[in-house]
Design a protein that fits this description.
With 136 residues, this protein is α/β, with parallel strands linked by helices. It has helices spanning 19-31, 50-58, 73-78, 109-131, and strands spanning 8-13, 36-41, 81-84, 97-98.
Length: 136
């Protein structure tokens, strides 16, 4: 990784409505402007999952303005780290890590909260790893 620029992380899921949106929001929350972070879907949907938006709001993270984005090959090529969420994704140039998370779509809010908490813990661990390589 080039030490003169910020680390770049791309979270990829199929629809970019749940897990990848949560991961992007948490990593941004933990590292702020010390990381370039984005999420995308290989078949992006129209809006984030309402249950995910609600669960994130309960934890103080507002993703109401987030919109699913289609995976961009240029953005993927520029990313230092590409993390998939546990779904089959096509068209990703490489996968550096897969978090193996269940899809929160259509799940009861208690289950979405469990998935959210797992995403939060994984994003925190990633932030700690990345934080060690960025200036504070």
């Amino acid at each position: 990784m080039d030490k003169t620029r910020l680390p770049s992380v791309l979270f990829v899921c199929r629809h970019n409505t749940g897990r990848s949106q949560m991961a992007e929001a948490y990593l941004r929350h933990f590292l702020g402007d010390r990381v370039e972070v984005a999420s995308a879907g290989t078949v992006a949907a129209d809006v984030p999952d309402a249950g995910v938006v609600a669960a994130m709001a309960e934890d103080g993270i507002d993703i109401t303005g987030a919109r699913p984005k289609l995976l961009d090959a240029h953005r993927a090529a520029q990313a230092d780290t590409i993390i998939t969420m546990g779904c089959d994704v096509d068209g990703v140039s490489r996968i550096d890590e897969d978090w193996g998370l269940p899809d929160p779509k259509g799940q009861p809010l208690d289950r979405v909260r469990e998935i959210r908490d797992t995403v939060k813990a994984k994003a925190q661990a990633l932030a700690e790893r990345l934080g060690a390589t960025t200036s504070r």
